[in-house]
Amino acid sequence: MKVRCPRNQLHDALSLVAHAASGRTSLPILSHLYIEAQEDSVKLIGSDLEQWVEFSVPAMVEEPGKITVPAKLITELIGSLQSEEVDMEQGEKGTLWVRARGAEYRFVGLPPEEYPSVPELENPSEFQLPASLFMEMVDSVEFAVSQEEARATLTGLKMEYESGTLKLVATDTHRLAVSEAKVELGSGSADVSAIVPLKAIQLVQRLPSQESFTLNLSDHRAAFAGANARITTQLIEGQYPNYQRVIPAQYTRLWKVMTAELKMALKRASLVARENGNKVVLRTEGEKLHITARGEGVGEASESVELVREGDDLEIAFNVRYLLDMLDVIKEEGISVELTESLRPALFKPVEKQDYLCVVMPMAL
Amino acid sequence: MKERRAIQVLDDQTVNRIAAGEVVERPAAAVKELVENSLDAGATRIEVEVEMGGRQMLRVRDNGIGMARDEALLSLQRHATSKIRTAADLFSIETMGFRGEALPSIASVSRLEMTTRPFEQESGTLIEVEGGEIVKMEETSAPVGTTITARDLFFNVPARLKFLKTTATEMGHILETVMRYAFAYPEVSFRLLHDRQEILFTQGNSDLISVVASVWGREIARELVAVETEHKNVRIAGLISPPHATRPTRQYQLFYVNGRPARGKTLFAALDGAYKSLTPEKRHPICILMIEVPPNLVDVNVHPAKTEVKFQRENDVFSAMAAAVRSALLDHGMIPSALPPESTARPTPAIPDVRIPTSGTAQPPAGNTIHPPGTKVYMPDSETLNEILFQRAGLSPTPPSEPDERLDEEFDSSVPSGEQPSSDIASSANQPSPAWMTEEPLAPRHLPFADLLDGLQILGQIANTFIIAWTNKGLVIIDQHVAHERVLYEMLCDERGSMPIQKQYLLEGAPLQLDRKSALLLQEKMQELERIGFELEPFGTDSFLIRAVPAAIAQKDYLGLLREMIEELVDISVARRLPVAREQIWTTTSCKMAVKAGDPLSMPEMQKLIEDLAKTENPYLCPHGRPITLTMTLSELEKRFKRT
User: Between B231 and which of A252, A269, B70, B320 could a Cys-Cys bridge form, CB atoms 3.0 to 4.6 Å apart?
Assistant: First the structure.
């Protein structure tokens, strides 16, 4: 193998791919990256056997070939070089020479044929969608993914496709976020669902921006492919809770508030609330929504924002963090809140948009 | 049917050989004796019915061999037994009872009614005894078997009556008793009713796993693997849990020696030895182990309650236990191997299918057992309980529960008792030992903690467990877990609490399936758990729905934490023979909610923790009695480095 690559692009690619490489030493080859030069590009692969990231960088290939090299070393070296271009050449016994303007390094690799191959997806359902749309959907639900390992299925993002709609769902048992979009099915079964590990989602979010995006879902794996990168992941096995059941179908009270106004008020109130389990109390009175918080030994907060309201007055408490997480991802000007009672779930939606919702459970008053 | 042996009065010599004991000290003891008699009579169905925790009425009904009139009469005399003849027989006991004093003892402290009919006779006998005096005897029609009803237990022993605990506690003991026999005799169908509500039912289909499922719940039943080994005359059979499914207490460890419930250090030690290095410290495997040894190699006569056993060849029991556990775990691939984690297959559930339905849908076994469809949850007498709880509320921090044991884990020092002279460390400074941290334990100091905050400067965290700080007083080492535990504990205890406990509701009630005993306790403690932020509602037999959790642990594994808390509480309530006090719940809760050893903390988090700790009333001991802070002054340091 003998190649010349643009250093910046190579470094961006390495940083992403190295993220997938495992820190575990039990299988040493997983702490390496796989590098293969072919035609006019260099393909990099990193994996921890749960996720595989493949990334291609344009290169002038003099001699094709393949090699593995320690992920951390090569990434840090390429990052700290200052030249425009980098030369890489295969040495004896699986070693790799890296040369750039006066710098010359040799790294010891492992046999490339031992590198675990990227698994194939069996009969995947394939969707094409604008990358920006997909990223927006991911961002708008990601905060609700549970961090708690005890319930494995909730540590992933649920993706399901049904009658022309792709839905992304996340819940941590206190809140639920659902984002959906009309997407056309490219090929495969029209009825598919998958629980994608958060780590895979985070890798997807790191992909450089691009126009369109291909999503492949199969029974045990999913793959996300852009122009020059592809992320393959194992799915979380198990039964995702029936989230439809917790979306309230009816309401007796409806509030409409300006998103930014509510968000700023809550942000300020949270300064005090964080001393008290993040609790904020929301109470309607006429055309006002009063927000109060108390932090023991800190003080009190009181805010009020304009509100358009249907139904009786209500007092209800929330974890302010949960509200802010949700408000942070709502881009629309106005937000509607559908409520019933103070210990019943509240349904938040952007006003006049049906493609996003977030259910938040209240705290005790 | 069992072979019949006529009942006779024991000869004096034998009587003397048997240490007389207080056989019936509480309703559960009476239940135990009567159930054992039923088992010895070869019953395949035993029904225990209790009213008011056994105080008002307890009845044991069996379908055993029954007794003819003469035998029935004889059985009410002290030391009348069909089970042994001479003292020599004591060394090869194969029946449960043998003293011949159970029935007369119960009869002497209650109004007892016995109905019995042997299978070969057409009619039965009814005998009524009041405080030991036979007041009525007549022929009666009765099913084959024996029914003994004891009413007004201890009516003529007011002192004993006084010592009885609440209905819930007594019922807990009875349940425990019946449960133990249900495990030992899976071929016998047991049924326990309290105030006409069924609280335990086993089918008697000889399947131990199904007994476990109906008593401890399916979740536990699914975890267990079968054990069966024979080793030097010692046969061990039963069920054990793989190392990954252990419990914080020994509540789920049952041993039987030759069919008799047994306990004793030997057994615990043998089991612990077998699991050594497989389970984390302070975790205990679940087990139900039937140990069979030749009757002449075990002395069950050590204790009148017959639970303490002595083996003649302890080593054989040890090695048999080790072999049994090891081979069972090996068979199921449950001993961790040195292979990388991705190549070791996850332990497959060893018990493929638990066949037994839960009691709600249980099929009545063939026969005349009455089994109402849909059983209700037993509600303990909460009023009395609350009285006790309120009396006990607002006390100063709990006395250390097991200080020595816990202390030894973390520190090699003794429990701090009062003020320690500051020369303590200085005096040991003569031995130049660079490893003073490990070899020379520091004495926990009782300085006013506010002083320790003067010039507080946090240096860092070591082993993600201890916070190291420098203050005007010297070097301070703080155990982060116990420090946080103390902070939370005082927060929980303070009723006017500066920090109210915030409750976060769940989108959907999380189901919590418990075993019967834990469920009973939870019913009882529901209110207290609500005060610390859990909201639960009963959801069928032994099941609950968690509606809300303390906001502080909302993002943690609240289900696991709650489960562990309940288990610890169950263990405490058994160990202390007292209803668990509110404080105890709080102690346990604060421990479970606190940051753990091994949690990395940021500087601001450490700062906050120490400030909070400084505000507590007792920053020196955690609610379990472990020390929180250790201090070493600058002069002590200087002495150690021979700078003075």
Answer: B320
Instruction: Kindly state whether residues B160 and B240 are assigned to the same domain.
Output: no
- Does residue B326 lie in a domain region? yes
Q: What CATH number is associated with residue B228?
A: 3.30.230.10
Least CB–CB distance from A345: residue in B340, B498, B507: B507
Write the DSSP assignment of B579-643 as a string of letters: PPPHHHHHHHHHHHHSPPTT----HHHHHHHHHHHHHSS-TTB-TTS-B-EEEE-HHHHHHHTT-
Asked if residue B319 and residue B261 are part of one domain, the reply reads yes
Same domain, B310 and B374: no
Distance from the first to the final alpha carbon of chain B = 87
Domain count, chain B: 3
B69 sits in which H/E element: helix B69-75
Residue B167 vs residue A62, higher pLDDT = A62
Which DSSP letter does residue B377 get?
P
Interval B324-337 mean pLDDT: 60
Specify whether B280 is located in the same domain as B331: yes
Contact B342 A245 (CB under 8 A): no
Q: Are strands B45-51 and B189-194 parallel, antiparallel or unpaired?
A: parallel
Question: Where does B454-602 have alpha helices with state H?
Answer: 480-493, 516-531, 558-576, 582-593
CA dihedral B557, B563, B564, B565 (to 10 degrees): 100
> Which helix (DSSP H) or strand (DSSP E) does residue B289 occupy?
strand B287-292
Whether B553 maps to a domain, the answer reads no
The answer for B464, left when phi > 0, alpha when psi is -120 to 50, beta otherwise, is left
Structural domain including B55 reads 12-204
Scanning every residue of chain A, which has its alpha carbon at the shortest distance from the alpha carbon of B509?
Answer: A173
Q: What is the CATH number of the domain that holds B415?
A: 3.30.1540.20
What is the distance in angstroms between the Cα of A292 and the nearest Cα belonging to chain B?
A: 15
Q: Do B63 and B167 share a domain, yes or no?
A: yes
The interface predicted TM-score of the complex, written ipTM, equals 0.74
Residue numbers in A near B554 (CB within 8 A): 174, 319
DSSP state of B255: E
Please report whether residue B513 resides in a domain: no
pLDDT in tens, chain A (365 residues): 999 999 998 998 998 999 888 766 567 888 899 999 988 899 999 998 889 999 999 999 999 999 999 998 999 999 999 888 999 999 888 889 999 888 899 999 898 888 988 998 888 899 988 988 999 999 999 999 998 877 889 999 999 998 889 999 999 999 999 999 998 888 888 788 999 999 899 898 888 877 888 999 998 999 999 888 999 999 999 999 899 989 999 999 999 999 999 999 999 999 998 877 889 999 999 899 999 998 777 789 999 999 999 999 999 999 999 999 999 999 899 999 999 998 899 999 999 788 999 999 999 88
Domains located in chain A, CATH noted: 2-114 (3.10.150.10), 125-244 (3.10.150.10), 248-360 (3.10.150.10)
**Terminal C-alpha separation, chain A:** 67
> A145, A243 in Cβ contact below 8 A?
no
Distance from the B506 Cα atom to the nearest Cα atom in chain A, whole angstroms: 5
If asked whether residues B46 and B145 sit together in one domain, one would say yes
The Cα B35–Cα B45 span in angstroms is 10
pTM of the model: 0.54
